[in-house]
Write a structure and sequence with these properties.
This protein has 176 residues and is of the alpha+beta class. It has a domain of 121 residues: Gcn5-related N-acetyltransferase (GNAT) (Aminopeptidase). A 7-stranded mixed sheet has the order 1-2-3-4-5-7-6. It is globular and about 45 Å long. The structure holds coenzyme A. The site of coenzyme A has 20 residues, from β4, α4 and α5.
């Protein structure tokens, strides 16, 4: 599914039972970005529906042989995830909604591998563009997406609602 992961990690599509495990890592992985407001924002950005209705276009990476959740399908020891989907409105586009890598595993190409897998999936469904957004405060995410070849917008004030500024990113898969 994802062929270039560091040893000891495996990838699969998530299932509904993974939802609590993924929610549980958000605050640590985002380093408390934006304080209490950020905690609430992130939990609301990842409701259970993503683990019900968007599983076949999303990926979960876990440590092999470690099942913290206690049984297969519980998410185990989550090492990274990407939640994405094919746009229902723009038939040439796909969208990455949320991505995270365990901080202890940063800089090993896992984020890039997740995006490569999503690009391949998008292409296989005839999608040419991939879009995503991040908050202006998340400079690591902005550097990461730029390194991957995304084009960034400037800061768009109130993009997601009052006080919720965003930077948008797009990539043309046909140009790569
Ligand atoms: C952003 C994130 C997903 C990157 O994951 P990662 O596995 O560490 O990234 P990779 O190792 O695949 O890096 C891919 C490229 O991005 C660059 N990059 C990654 N993080 C970077 C950072 N903080 N600053 C600058 N460049 C960075 C790498 O140098 C690499 O470039 P290269 O291949 O040309 O050397 C990870 O830092 C993360 O989970 N952050 C917290 C959650 C988050 O902000 N998610 C994104 C917003 S929803």
């Amino acid at each position: 599914m994802i062929d270039v992961l560091p040893g000891g990690l495996t990838a699969r599509h998530p299932v509904e039972g993974d939802h609590p495990q993924v929610l549980a890592v958000l605050d640590e992985w985002w380093g408390g970005l934006k304080g209490a407001a950020g905690v609430l924002e992130r939990s609301l950005l990842l409701p259970r529906l993503y683990f019900q209705h968007f599983t076949t276009t999303s990926f979960l990476v876990e440590r092999e042989g470690v099942q913290v959740g206690g049984r297969q399908g519980d998410g185990g020891d989550v090492a990274a995830f990407l939640v994405g989907f094919l746009s229902q409105t723009e038939l040439d586009a796909a969208y990455v909604h949320f991505v995270g890598v365990d901080p202890r595993l940063h800089g090993q190409g896992i984020g890039r591998a997740l995006y490569r897998a999503f690009f391949a999936l998008a292409r296989s469904h005839g999608r040419r563009y991939v879009h995503c957004i991040t908050s202006p405060q998340n400079t690591a995410s902005q550097s990461f997406h730029t390194r991957l070849g995304f084009t960034a917008s400037g800061v768009k004030p109130d993009y997601d609602g009052p006080g919720l500024d965003r930077v948008t990113f797009s990539i043309d898969l046909a140009a790569r």
